[in-house]
Design goal:
By secondary structure, this protein is α+β, with helices and mostly antiparallel strands. Helix 3 packs across helix 4. The protein is globular and about 105 Å long.
Length: 233
Amino acid sequence: MKAGSLRKNLKERRVWIVLILGLCVMGITGFFLLRSVLWSRQDEQASLLRIVSLERPLEHAFRPRLGLCRGVELEADCAEAMERMLQAAEQADCALALGEGYLSRETLRQRYEQQLLALAARGLSPEAAELQLMVGLHYPGTSEHELGLSADLNPEEGKEKECLRWLREHSWEYGFVLRYPEGKLEWTGRELLPWHYRYVGPEAAAQMQQLDLCLEEYTLWFYSDDAIILLDE
């Protein structure tokens, strides 16, 4: 083989090697970028579905990223979705007043201590008073209001039935679900609270609505053991 032909073949081989290596690097980079996006999405979804209760208390250092909706603090994405839902309710002639949203651990602690004093003044022992407050929605460290993902919605006076029905039928379109629905006591530990709504994101809300699942059922049936552990961390 002539020297010129040999050099030409070697040059072509080097070009092909460089192209193959480049494609490999692009493929590996793409894989890790995709995995990073999927992990980020899983973490975000897990945070939206987090269950907080006496059995699953929230760590003291937790602080959500907050936004405002009509003067009420909520988790930022929840606040934006809440504003869209309230506007839609108004267009359907169902005005809803936004009640309590995010409550800090400090605020809940102050309320708890005030309620302890009030119950003690009524003659309850400290043990009985604490037990009564522990099963409420606002016990420090076990309240979903600390997540900033729950809110109380008060319907317009005289239109309670219509407005609450609108919420049940349309809240999922904005990523919200009735947190403590009727008939789910064995799962949630609470009776129906028709005004208390929780933001879980549009995808989960649509599935929960379609299959008539509460949050506890949804996280158990739709997530692996590892994901459920993640929800509790």
